[in-house]
Design a protein that fits this description.
The chain has helices spanning 16-28, 47-50, 52-67, 79-94, 96-106, 119-131, 155-158, 168-175, 199-215, 226-234, 236-243, 254-261, and strands at 2-5, 32-35, 73-75, 115-117, 142-145, 179-180, 220-223, 251-253. By secondary structure, it is α/β, with parallel strands linked by helices. It is globular.
Length: 280
């Protein structure tokens, strides 16, 4: 079994532990990870606010690089990258005008993968059955599943039926022995890309997230977005300064938690790279 993967910039840089955990889990489950060849930045949040041609060309090139190999599905673990690639993929499939424009910008034929999957899609459709009988260390902790802004929105793009109260991550957590809590901030914003330009905004919004999760007894926050992880983990000192409160709750990627339940080591999953120590 193999899966095409677009890592994007974050998973090769600031969130390399996310990619390490994905690779470790897939290797353990005997799933080959086929990284998109010669990939480029998707444009993330900046391109579509600055130049519409760049915002179309960057994701289109990634999709074409994938489509050349006749790949059915493309896994995009980063929520922001997933949003950009899924948006452009949908536009290219629904509009000949957009498709012709992209072909002209890239000077090549537009060939696309069959679908774009985020990490939850991939786990639920392809990996869940592979976990059966392989959970050696059930993650028996109370967890706050945090989706953030882009993993399930907008509804017409993601197809998520419950954009305010999704349950996909919770179902995955239950399968590995975790106990998802009911909390109020699972799809609220952490501050996203304002982490550099408006750090106080990130501190304020993330403080509310950490406070609610902690007060409801969560022992870990589970994420599937590099930006969410960066804000909640790396900005912890700013958050504590704003809230005048100490938070020790760790923030783990969903693949790191799955890896722990499979018996993989902290090093294999990149847990030593976190700013907030992971001792569970």
């Amino acid at each position: 079994m193999a899966i095409a993967v677009y890592p994007g910039c974050s998973l090769n840089g600031s969130s390399r532990e996310y990619m390490e955990s994905i690779r470790a889990v897939l290797d353990y489950l005997n799933v080959k990870m086929d990284e998109v060849e010669d990939w480029n930045c998707c444009g993330s949040t900046a391109a579509h606010n600055i130049d519409s041609d760049i915002a179309l060309a960057l994701p289109s090139r990634i999709l074409v690089q994938t489509g050349k190999k006749g790949t059915d599905d493309l896994l995009v673990p980063c929520a922001a990258c997933y949003n950009r690639l899924k948006t452009v993929w949908k536009d290219l499939n629904s509009s000949e005008v957009v498709k012709e424009k992209a072909a002209a910008l890239l000077d090549q034929e537009i060939r696309l993968p069959s679908n774009i999957l985020n990490i939850l899609d991939n786990i639920q459709t392809s990996l869940v059955h592979l976990l059966e009988g392989k959970i050696t260390k059930p993650f028996q902790k109370k967890v706050a599943c945090y989706y953030g802004c882009l993993l399930v929105r907008p509804q017409q793009l993601t197809g998520e039926p419950r954009v305010e109260d999704p349950q996909g991550m919770e179902e995955i957590m239950k399968r590995i022995g975790a106990i998802p809590i009911d909390w109020a901030f699972k799809t609220e914003c952490c501050g996203a890309g304002f982490t550099m330009s408006q750090t106080q905004t990130v501190a304020r919004l993330s403080s509310a997230l950490l406070s609610d999760a902690t007060d409801r007894g969560a022992e870990a926050i589970i994420v599937a977005c590099p930006m969410c992880h960066s804000n909640l983990d790396m900005r912890r000192k700013d958050i504590e300064k704003f809230s005048k409160r100490k938070f020790t709750i760790p923030v783990l990627y969903i693949t790191q938690v799955i890896g722990l339940a499979l018996g993989l080591s902290h090093k294999e999953l990149g847990l030593q790279r976190h700013f907030v120590p992971v001792t569970i």
